[in-house]
Amino acid sequence: MRLDDRLNDRWFRLDEPLVSAFVERWRPETHTFHMSFGECTITLQDVAYQLGLPVDGRYVSGFLTDFHVYIDGGRPAWQWFHELLGVLPLANQIQKFAVNCTWFQETFGECPEGADEETLFADKSGNRIHIRWLPFVARLEEMGSYNWGSAALAWLYRCMCRVANRHVVKLAGPLQLLQSWIFWRFPGFRPAGYDAFSWPLASRWSGYNPGISEKGPRVQMARLKIDLLQARDFIWMPYSTPDVLQVVHPEVLEPRHTMLWWCVTSLIYFAVVEWHQVDRVLPQFGGVQPPPHPALNIDFLMSQEASERLCP
């Protein structure tokens, strides 16, 4: 169920030193990268073009506390799991409410004989999958009605904000989205030989493998290149060219979707709520950037709302 596995066999490997150097420029208070030429960031527009995910619809959320009590009107979670998948994982494959991905791969990695198009099987990806996804698996026909684009961006924002803490040493989240954004926006970091592209645009880097050279020197080189960047080294509107527009799925360009790209709004992914501050990066939409408003502190706003509820 991981969003960053959408491209499956057309995916690419992560360039960890490059991504690490860019994350150092991330500012949690604004959700933007602070560069020498100004601010830039990953927006809902980038998610729509890069991954082809919907950016409107129902928010991706649900109960996380007392999960086993509230799921599906009180039905025991593991009972529902068995009804949906026909089998339960062994105890050593479970950590609280998360199941090892290796179990899914071994159990559902091959399509059984006589299976129809509704048969469920999983890709091997990551370490564990939380069974909070059961409601979505149980209603596959409704999956397209959810705002997966906002969920992916909210989770990426949250993961980059977490790693800004010096005590956090590992970065999670849909990092291939970040890397593809870097390649499309910063030609100086783009690997050679990947000129052809199709839909979704992140598939352009299919098969890319940065190699296993020493990470330390590569991080330092990436930092130096970022320090020397100027405005001409950043492509503000990479999706406006005819060769890109001719491969884009036409539904992405419908006004009911594109109008959301400009919205300063909240992005929701279960308990994660992050702010989409496109008012600080208007040149990415062809606009002129005025002096930005002070950054919105969504954690402060939520704490204020909680206080008002407790003290009417």
UniProtKB/TrEMBL annotation:
GO biological process: meristem maintenance
InterPro entries xref list: AminoTfrase-like_pln_mobile, MAIN-like
Record organism: Arachis hypogaea
Domain named Aminotransferase-like plant mobile: residues: 14-295
Protein name per its UniProtKB record: Aminotransferase-like plant mobile domain-containing protein
Coiled coil: none
Cited PANTHER family: PROTEIN MAIN-LIKE 2 (PTHR46033), PROTEIN MAINTENANCE OF MERISTEMS-LIKE (PTHR46033:SF8)
